[in-house]
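Before relying on records like the one below, remember that each one covers exactly one chain. Contacts with other chains, cofactors or solvent are not represented anywhere in the record.
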Amino acid sequence: MKFCYAHRRYVLYPDALAIQTVDDLKPSDYSDEFIRKVVETGFEGIELPETTLAALGDDATAVTAFSKRFQDAGALAVAVRTGGSFLNPRYAEETRKRLSSAVGYAGMIGAGIVNVALGSPTPNPGKPGNPYPNEIGASFGWSRLEVSSRDASVFDFERTADELRIACDVASEFGVTICAEVHPYTIVDNSWSALLMHRLVARDNFGINPDTGNPYWSYAVPEESTEEFMDAVAPVSVYWHCKSMMRIYHPENERAVFVRVPLPDGEVDYRYAMSAMIDAGFDGYLAIESLQAGDQWYRDGRSLEYAKALAKEIESAQPSS
């Protein structure tokens, strides 16, 4: 198993950029000090947003030079992240363009994974279950979600699978695998929907990113346990976002709030999750999805140290072939 950094925060003195999300980062924002810190913390690679690479346009020389900065430091650019919905007529064309762009950039920089979260802004923003834009903390833990597999139709899955299948066929020419991320506010948000999408796309270079923390905080009460979820999706997983949190449930309000914490301190059972992934033969990248507050290097470093130790312990206990 390999380990990369899916950072969601960019702070390293003297840089503390005033950005809404890391998707707003430009290639020039990545300092040599930041890249070195990624390597010093122990990561072997990094996940980059398609939007960051898109700032360089079609200049292949500039794109490869940017990725080479990571490679020279000792952390490969291993995944390109994108997202969007093929079901919302306002955003479908843009989603298609961004996915195609992500595949092209992945091919340029030698990244083996394009990660796709299949969501779009909710049609009717407002709580509960319909967050306003950028309301990250308020987005999770309601009793309902406006966009979800619960409300999706068979057509929604078939339409999305058709688009992903086309993208996979192009990606195969670059040796790139596309994965659908299990994510709240998308139609792939639990085990059955992930397995259905995997079956419908039916391409060797398509798989699932189980993002084990996401099903836990989608609803006030999780739809399924971590153990049930991982048993189901581990065999079709090709890339793995990992994060954890503490859940504080208010049944009288049909609401849960969540506090993000390092992996060893949260309520997601990563010992079981890691065992399921290793037993399924997963040998891809485990991506630590960083915390968005506090000392990201200390806290994300703890998550990485824990994940590496856990993988080593479980792998060493596996019967030799």
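The chain is about 35% helix and 20% strand.
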